[in-house]
């Protein structure tokens, strides 16, 4: 009789413990929207409202300055623009984590070190404004960069890639500048001055660091099979340059990989892993890598909140 009582008590206790325990089963089919998740982690453009009738010098984030034309006759179509306009702006190179939410720093033939990658859009009532005179941007920096070019985005098939804009290059100069304004005190700036006749959504100030090559020995990343291209992403970020790209995924080996390399040199950097297996299950990890040398690397990922992933990305 005692044995039956003990057995019943044991079964009751083990059953109760089992019911109270939460078991997380990863959903390998969970799908994430890369663009939305990266926007949450790295931020979106800042919207600034400006009355262009009484202000033509605007302070943008990261100590960048925008000067509108002296001639206030701007137009949407042939109509004069007066009153308040919206300026949307973001610099994706400060902090460097913004790179992950910009466009890969490459042309069809070269890798680019992105000195500045910016998004700029000026609208009124959601309509883009056509300026009849040049707009000026000032980028403070204490050192002139050799062979710096201005790049804009072009479609190469289904992929957007950077290409040098000869038109914008002619408006890029380095020197000491003095900005006069009625709202802000006069501003002395050492750095780059860029004049543009038409606002482009995306612009890159950068320089080529070498030609793109396909590595004979691709670099593969060892990850648990739980993580795949539908719920995860892996990026390479250079430690020496503002250069980044997203790794590909091999459906047959279930591995992230890259064949990207740079001609006649190794490319040291970090691999950044971000994964999401449910609405509130996020994973993050990094590891060092040298493209051109390392062919198999492992990334240790741990569960993190989005806020902690943001903080980790800020350390890039």
Order of helices and strands: HHEEEEEEEEEEEHEEEEEEEEEEEH
Report the sheet-strand fraction: over 45%
Major β-sheet profile:
10 strands, mixed
**Content-based structural category:** mainly beta
Shape: globular
Oligomer: single chain
Helix content: 10-25%
Instruction: Return the average pLDDT rounded to an integer.
Output: 87
Round the Cα radius of gyration to an integer and report it. 25 Å
Q: Count the beta strands.
A: 22
Uncertain runs are: 1-25
How far apart are the first and last residues' alpha carbons, in Å?
67 Å
Counted by DSSP, the helix tally is 4
Description:
The protein is mainly β and 316 residues long. It is 13% helix and 48% strand. The chain has helices at residues 2-20, 34-42, 166-169, 306-313, and strands at 46-51, 57-60, 64-67, 75-76, 79-80, 84-91, 110-124, 127-128, 135-140, 149-156, 159-164, 172-179, 187-196, 202-222, 232-238, 244-246, 248-250, 255-262, 267-278, 281-291, 296-298, 302-304. The radius of gyration is 25 Å and the shape is globular. The termini are far apart.
């Amino acid at each position: 009789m005692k044995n039956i009582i003990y057995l019943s008590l044991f079964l009751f206790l083990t059953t109760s413990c089992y019911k109270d325990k939460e078991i997380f089963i990863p959903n390998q089919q969970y799908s994430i929207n890369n663009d939305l998740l990266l926007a949450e982690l790295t931020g979106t453009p800042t919207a600034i409202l400006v009355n262009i009738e009484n202000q033509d010098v605007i302070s943008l984030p990261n100590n960048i300055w925008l000067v509108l034309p002296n001639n206030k006759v701007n137009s949407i179509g042939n109509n004069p623009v007066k009153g308040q306009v919206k300026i949307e702006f973001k610099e994706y190179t400060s902090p460097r984590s913004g790179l992950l939410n910009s466009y890969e720093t490459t042309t069809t033939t070269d890798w680019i070190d992105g000195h500045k990658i910016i998004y700029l859009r000026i609208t009124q009532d959601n309509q883009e404004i056509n300026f009849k005179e040049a707009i000026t941007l000032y980028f403070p920096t204490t050192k002139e960069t050799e062979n710096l070019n201005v790049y804009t985005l072009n479609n190469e098939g289904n992929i957007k890639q950077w290409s040098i804009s000869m038109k914008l290059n002619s408006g890029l100069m380095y020197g000491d500048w003095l900005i006069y304004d009625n709202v802000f005190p006069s501003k002395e700036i050492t750095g780059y001055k860029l004049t543009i006749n038409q606002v482009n959504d995306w612009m890159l100030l950068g320089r080529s660091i070498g030609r793109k090559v396909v590595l004979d020995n691709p670099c593969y990343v060892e990850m648990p099979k739980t993580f795949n291209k539908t719920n995860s992403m892996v990026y390479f970020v250079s430690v020496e340059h503002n250069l980044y790209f997203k790794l590909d995924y091999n459906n047959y080996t279930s591995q992230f990989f890259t064949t990207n390399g740079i001609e006649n040199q190794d490319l040291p950097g970090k691999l950044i892993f971000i994964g999401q297996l449910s609405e509130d299950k996020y994973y993050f990890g990094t590891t060092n890598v040298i493209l051109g040398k390392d062919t198999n690397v492992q990334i240790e990922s741990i569960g993190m909140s989005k806020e902690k992933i943001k903080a980790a990305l800020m350390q890039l």
